[in-house]
Amino acid sequence: MNYPMWEIPGIGGPWVIGIMSIFHVLIAWFAVGGGLYLWVAEKKIYKENLDEWLPVLQQHSRFFLILTSVFGAISGVGIWFTIGLVQPEGTSTLIHAFVFGWAIEWVFFVIELAAAAVYYYTWNRIPRELHAKVGGLYALSSFLTLVIINGILAFMLTPGSTWLSVAGTGTEASAFWPAFFNPTYFPGLIMRFLACLSLAGIYAIITYSMVDKPELEKTKRYMVQWSAKWLMPMVLLMPLVLLWLFFAMGQNSRDILNIGFATIGSGNFSVVTRMALLTILTTVTIAGVVYFFAYKYPKDLTTGHAIALLALGAVATASTEYVRETVRKPYVIVNHMYSDGVRVRDVEKFNQNGFLTSSIWAPQTADSIARGKAMFQGQCMACHTTNGYRSMTKLMQKRDLKAINQFLQMLHKPTADSPYPKYMPPLVGSEDEIRDLAMYLETVSLGDKAQGMKVVKND
Ligand code: HEC
Predict the structure, then answer these.
(1) Same domain, 140 and 20
(2) Of all protein residues, whose CA lies closest to atom 17 belonging to ligand 1?
(3) Last residue of a domain, one of 184, 215, 241
(4) Which atom of ligand 1 is nearest to 331's Cα?
(5) Which tens digit of pLDDT belongs to each residue from 274-322?
(6) Over the stretch 167-219, which tens digit does the pLDDT of each residue have?
(7) Is the CB of 382 under 6 A from ligand 1?
(8) Residue 396 lies in a domain
């Protein structure tokens, strides 16, 4: 606990990050796919003499510019705020491990935003070929932002043995490239790029669905059909890429999905598996709707259909993000740092020297409940809330102090057959601190009744 804790009642920190990321990812993926779309579509219009469609594309580029530069930029900064507050230790590690990666990323961002503005404001003002080239620059720079960020996101899931072997030695920079091009780099990049292309097609279909001039009817049908084809790579390749990703990630991550498959319909934990299935189902539905309403019978396409597609896209993105977060449990950086910010190599140190005693933020008090609460904030709140998401009150199931202590010992020194280490970090700290945590959890578990149970402590 090197940082103060930000307690968010109800939904908890993970969902604040989750909501922010889903919002951002939907826009950022569109920025990457949409940039490419505008470039290719503009060249197509010139080549096939579809000039009557140019005003529609210009309209689309206006929507594009506002959405990606305003909301994309704001939500991107929002992500920095939320991960910095909820996961300061993990965020700090990502910043340090990829200093030059981030610097390069921001260079591409600046080029991307500048190119987007130039692109929009120079329609009909500079030669067509040159304008298309500005579009090409935009497409390239936004693709390169994905190339960089994908390395850092994939790193959290599979940092790779080279980086892990130098982590904490001060020479992490020597493993920059293996950390960047880590085992899930390429399947992750292709998965994200396929999603970018699909979103570009969906957003274009939304703009086009609003065109109702009779003289544009024929071109509209043609362009809607063409935009529908932007989803084809995803439909054909996504299952293969997801399978590739599944085999490229670590054993523990695969196990988390497998536990879900094994307990489907019964265990709580299969939520992650249901989310994975939801991704597949929504993707198939999107493909079906696009095929019938945009490709086969484009005349029947309404703006309602088009917006429904985007809503489905949002569900697919949200469930994929949920799975991505969950298969990484109990880590924020797999095999290096647990979700509570404790480094794997520091576990023994905390057990010997104490967890709270190593923190400048822990309350300096002899009050067991206050110290127990600090333990909870430092080690459980990364995934649980007292009363809302993954509620402690509920999960404690009215355990009394003795049962709580037994449970905590299982988290502290897990046996080989314990299921908990697959999704919860080991509980670290001195025996006294763990007893304090138990006393705090008793008040959460039993509420007011806890006061009467104090005697059990002296068993
Ligand atoms: C990395 C995330 C994470 C952290 C950190 C974490 N948990 Fe959990 N915990 C989970 C998940 C996931 C479940 C399963 C959730 C469910 O069943 O709804 C769970 C389940 C539980 C359960 C119910 C398990 C059972 O078999 O009864 C208890 C109790 C619990 N956690 C206590 C704790 C305590 C106490 C801490 C802090 C010392 C903690 N957890 C830290 C993720 C975490």
Answers:
(1) yes
(2) 268
(3) 241
(4) 1
(5) 778 888 888 888 888 888 888 888 887 889 988 999 999 888 888 888 8
(6) 988 888 899 999 999 999 999 999 999 999 999 999 999 999 999 899 999 99
(7) yes
(8) yes
Residues 83 and 214 placed together within one structural domain of the fold? yes
Closest-lying ligand 1 atom to the alpha carbon of residue 390: 18
Which pTM does this prediction carry? 0.90
Residues in the chain: 459
Residue 98 included in any domain:
yes
Alpha-carbon gap, residue 138 to 120, rounded angstroms: 11
* Mean of the per-residue pLDDT values of the chain: 88
**Would you say 255 and 420 are in contact if contact means Cβ atoms under 8 Å apart?**
no
Contact present, 72 and 24 (Cβ < 8 Å): yes
Give the residue among 77, 57, 60, 223 at the shortest CA–CA distance from 128.
57
**CA nearest ligand 1 atom 1, residue:** 330
Q: Are residues 88 and 230 in the same domain?
A: yes
The structural domain count of the chain equals 2
Task: For residue 34, give the nearest of 1, 80, 78, 71 by alpha carbon.
Answer: 71
Q: Which residue, of 225, 241, 257, is where some domain finishes?
A: 241
Q: Is the CB of 289 under 6 A from ligand 1?
A: no
User: Does one domain contain both 110 and 226?
Assistant: yes
Mutate to test the pocket of ligand 1, among 395, 409, 418, 440 (most ligand atoms within 8 A of CB): 395
In a domain, 195, yes or no: yes
For residue range 138-158, what is the model confidence (pLDDT) as tens digits? 999 999 999 999 999 999 999
| Ligand 1 neighbour 383 (Cβ under 6 A) | yes
- The residue range of the domain holding 198 is 12-241
